[in-house]
Amino acid sequence: MVLVVSQFPARSVFYKQQDANFFPTWAYVVGRSIAALPVAFIDGICYGTLIYWLTGLAYNEGASVGNYFMFLLLTFSASLTSGFVFGIFSSAVRVVASAQACNAITAVILVIFSGFTVQPNVIPP
Is 121 inside a domain boundary? Predict the structure, then answer.
């Protein structure tokens, strides 16, 4: 995942090129999204393989090769979308410290409501 601090210097270059009409904004967003695919793929493969085999998911009843690849697909998509979600703050917020604070608050909210820290049967209807 790309850190917020490393994305801020690229903003000035993007704004300079955008003001000079070098390319439209959608081209930058699509290019940046395509460039994030290999990193998310490697993250998903490394993390997904370790977690799948070391936590015993492969030894459950009904486990198959299809389940393994589905798990890798889920870890890939989670890596990609989390990079996109946290990348929003580097483009929307002007100050690095504020962007990092927004990332921290978002991460805490996502963890709290993910179902791992607060179980669904404890949440009031």
Answer: no
